[in-house]
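Entry:
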Amino acid sequence: MRSTQLGSPGLVAAALLLGSNLLLAGRGAAQTYDQLEVAVLAASKIKDPKLRLKQFDELAKTVARIAKNRDTKASRGVIANSIGNWETEVSTSRFDDSKSVYASLQAIRRGDDDREIRRTQPTLHFRMLEGNFSILFLADCRFKRDSRAIECSPVRYRLDSEGAVDDVLRLSTSGKALFWHDGAKQFAAQLAKSKKMLFKFSPAGRPSVVAEFDTSRALEALKWFSKEAGVALSLPEKNTEQKETEPAEGDGKPAGTGKQ
């Protein structure tokens, strides 16, 4: 149909939506852009003109919400930024002047084939909140409970060519977040040396999902987090793994020393 061609008003509106999103979105911009892009492409394929226009109207409302959220954060003194593929945020409490610091990394999305990744939106999250440091794994699902400890959920992860590590992480009360309750700082030190992480998790009632994270900028992001949050992390001065493996593939040393 003519209305779905590149020069049609519908797709021109879609292009404006995406351009506006790049300007308006703060923390989480990459994720929001990715979601809007999928929505715009889907809307452009709707054959019924009224339904297509209705969908674009909904997308316009989404962009308006992004702008409102940005303005709300700015009024609260929230500073959002990015370090490579990491999203960062710093805010100060108006009650006790305590600082909250966040650094998050989203899983790689490779296209329509990664439906479960798009559906669950896995994110690795470093947080300093009310003086407490924590590392979380977040996803838009409820996690499967471990048969031996119902307050935990089983996971498996692998950093670069290091052997896979089986672990159980503590569940949040909502069941949609996992916490490193032991060895959080050791995990951060291992992550800072890596270039890639595979992370396998189990949504409740559904097959396990393997998420891939590009951790090549982890050292830089975690150094920023350590400084802003005032938490001591045993981080290397530079990513020695990256330096050693780039000249000749296969010469790198293992990135982690966790239990296997």
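The beta strands are 79-83, 86-92, 99-106, 123-129, 132-138, 152-159, 165-171, 177-179, 196-201, 209-214.
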